[in-house]
Every structure is written in structure tokens, then in C-alpha cells.
Automatic annotation (TrEMBL):
Localization per Swiss-Prot or TrEMBL: Mitochondrion inner membrane
InterPro entries xrefs: AOX (IPR002680), AOX_sf (IPR038659)
Cofactors named for this entry: Fe cation
This protein's name: Alternative oxidase
Any one GO MF annotation of this record: alternative oxidase activity
Known role: Catalyzes cyanide-resistant oxygen consumption. May increase respiration when the cytochrome respiratory pathway is restricted, or in response to low temperatures.
Location (main, coarse): mitochondrion
This enzyme's EC code(s): 1.-.-.-
Length: 343
């Protein structure tokens, strides 16, 4: 249904400039009000249903053109309830030195354990549960990083295919689809948490560093990069599982409140059925996506990077590739993949 929105402060200024000389200066809204306006702005920007209602909304319409009306590039195939609930945190044991290095490099994304100050952990401070806003800060930041590896790997494999005049063994689509999926996670959280200046600066810097590091790393050792991403996804599953546990313990009352609404973009992307549109459902879906990335990347890390086929391309399997990957936390072994193709 169409909805009317208030314009954020910056857009009000723009609108005023557009309508002639300013007669009296606008007073800056309070911080809380400004934040509320930014939330509304992102909700409209990311909504597929909001349509500007009046002449006053034309600036907003211009800002959001092409965002609200664009169809989904890769609509989600949906999750089987059984698979969603079957997902569990796991850790693939490192087998080689390279695996150990990849696992060691993952220390930045892990959740701190819930320690109690006792004889064993004297320096531990009492665990303070995170609030909804703190969770969203974490999710938004991590998802901006998570969208990078698939895009780098898919892009480089695309270039390789063009350069070498050969097929890609079905890897490119899965990798690009993964980065698209991560971006939809980010956009869903953004509609609930509009980032401030500090967060934008951090994302800007992190993207510059991580993209270029990944680019060089993937040229040098694609299997190492897939293993690293596999371990990052291990942590992502653990993080979302922890969030679900916190919800179940009643520590996130805003999200468990029946009146809490998740963003339109999430409902549309995951095609979430009526009655199953709570924040808990959304986190369950996102966790299942992360579990699928975990299985895909651990599998790709096990394969010969130049000659082996991608076993997650749909036509090679009668199970959706995301479902297959989600229930294989350590990925498929190379022998399993080759055997599947030999059949
Ligand atoms: Fe994600
Ligand atoms: Fe992921």
C-alpha cells in the first residue's frame, strides 16, 4: 500500500532551494527526530511499495527513482522450514597450514564468549547483553564486508573466462548470487538502522582495504580465499544463532514485540508468508543463507580451482543448491563432487 513519508532534513533543504529563495532558516531537528527521519528515508528508499503521494514528495521520488521499482535480480528461492531449523553453528577443523592461517585470520568477526568473572577467568567482566541497536550496528558492518568476496571472485573468474576463451565450470553465477544475497541482508538491516557518519567512514575504509586485499589474494590463491570465506561464514552462523538465543531469552524486547514490523524489502526478497514476518523469522532466513555460503565456500575451497565443476548449479542437482550447501557445514569433499558428476 502506498504510504506518505516525512522528508529528512537534507531533503527539506534541497526542496526549499528548489522552490526559490529561503525566507526563514530551518531549525535543525533534534538528534532523535533526525534519526527517526533517516530511518523513514531508508525505509522509503528500500521499499518496493512506497509511491510518492504529493508534489512535496518529488525530491524524494527523484532520489529513489530506480530503487523502488527495480525488480529483484535474483529472487530468493525460499527456505524449507525444516532446513532453516536444522542449521547449527559448526567449525570445520583446519587440515592444512593454509587452513590454519585462514582460520587464524578470522579472529575479527567472532562473537566474544559469555564469560563470568570466576577463579578461571579472573579478568573477565560480567557479560552485558547487546541491545537491538548494537546488534544492528554489528550486522550492518559485517554485511558490508560479507558482500565483497563473492563479487571479487565472480568478477575475476569472469575475466579469466574471457581472457582464456573457456567456460567457467559454473562457478561465476553462484559467486555473484552469493554477493547479491549478502547485499540484500545489508539492505534489510539498513531499513532498520540508518548509519551515521562514523559508520560510513568505517565502511568506506574497510571496503577499500578488504576489496583490494581480496582481489590480490584471489589472484594468488583462490582456494585459500574460499576457505577464509568459509570460516567467516562459520562465524556468521554462530553470530545469528547467538542473536536468536538472546531473543528467546527475552533480551531483545523491541524485536519480539508483536507490533514490530520488518522492512518491506525483506518480505519481498524472501517472499515471506503472512504470519511468518517477525524479526525472528528474518534472522532464521538470514542464518540459513549464511549456512549455505558456508557449505558452498568450504566446498569450493576443496576443489581444483581450474578444472573442477561447481556442484551447486541447479541443473546438476534436484535439490536447490542453497539447501544442499546449508546442510553440509564442512562442505562437500572433492571425491563426492567428482562422483556426483561421474553418475
Ligand atoms: Fe550475510
Ligand atoms: Fe554470508
Amino acid at each position: 500500500m502506498a504510504q506518505r513519508v516525512r522528508l529528512p532534513y537534507k531533503l527539506l533543504r534541497l526542496q526549499e532551494h528548489a522552490s526559490g529563495p529561503r525566507s526563514k532558516p530551518l531549525s535543525r531537528p533534534s538528534l532523535a527526530r533526525g534519526r527517526q527521519l533517516r530511518i523513514q528515508y531508508y525505509q522509503v528508499r528500500l521499499s518496493s511499495t512506497a509511491i510518492p503521494q504529493s508534489k512535496n514528495d518529488t525530491v524524494l521520488a527523484k532520489q529513489t527513482s530506480g530503487v523502488s521499482s527495480a525488480p529483484l535480480t535474483w529472487p530468493h528461492k525460499g527456505w524449507d522450514d525444516k532446513v532453516v531449523l536444522e542449521v547449527v553453528p559448526s567449525h570445520r577443523k583446519p587440515r592444512t597450514v593454509s587452513d590454519r592461517i585462514a582460520w587464524g585470520m578470522d579472529f575479527l568477526t567472532g562473537m566474544p564468549p559469555e564469560l563470568k568473572p570466576d577463579g578461571k577467568h579472573r579478568k573477565a567482566t560480567a557479560y552485558t547483553p547487546m541491545t537491538e541497536s548494537q546488534w544492528l550496528v554489528r550486522f550492518v558492518f559485517l554485511e558490508t564486508v560479507a558482500g565483497i568476496p563473492g563479487a571479487v571472485a565472480g568478477g575475476l573468474r569472469h575475466l579469466h573466462s574471457i581472457r582464456r576463451f573457456k567456460l567457467d565450470q559454473g562457478w561465476i553465477k553462484t559467486l555473484l548470487e552469493e554477493s547479491y544475497n549478502e547485499r540484500m541482508h545489508l539492505l534489510s538491516f539498513l531499513a532498520m538502522y540508518p548509519p551515521g557518519r562514523l559508520m560510513r567512514c568505517m565502511v568506506f575504509a574497510t571496503q577499500g582495504i578488504f576489496y583490494n586485499t581480496m582481489f590480490i589474494g584471489y589472484l594468488m590463491s583462490p582456494s585459500f580465499c574460499h576457505r577464509l570465506v568459509g570460516y567467516l561464514e562459520d562465524e556468521a552462523v554462530a553470530t545469528y544463532t547467538k542473536c536468536l538465543e538472546e531473543m528467546d531469552k527475552g533480551r531483545l524486547p523491541k524485536w519480539t514485540d508483536p507490533s514490530f514490523k520488518i522492512p518491506d524489502i525483506a518480505i519481498k526478497y524472501w517472499n515471506m508468508p503472512e504470519g511468518r514476518r517477525t524479526m525472528r523469522d528474518l534472522i532464521l532466513y538470514i542464518r540459513a543463507d549464511e549456512a549455505s555460503h558456508r557449505g558452498v565456500n568450504h566446498t569450493l575451497g576443496n576443489l581444483d580451482q581450474t578444472s573442477d565443476p561447481n556442484p551447486f548449479i541447479e541443473q546438476h542437482s534436484n535439490v536447490s543448491h542453497m539447501h544442499l550447501a546449508a546442510v553440509k557445514p564442512a562442505g562437500l569433499e572433492r571425491e563426492e563432487v567428482l562422483e556426483k558428476y561421474a553418475r
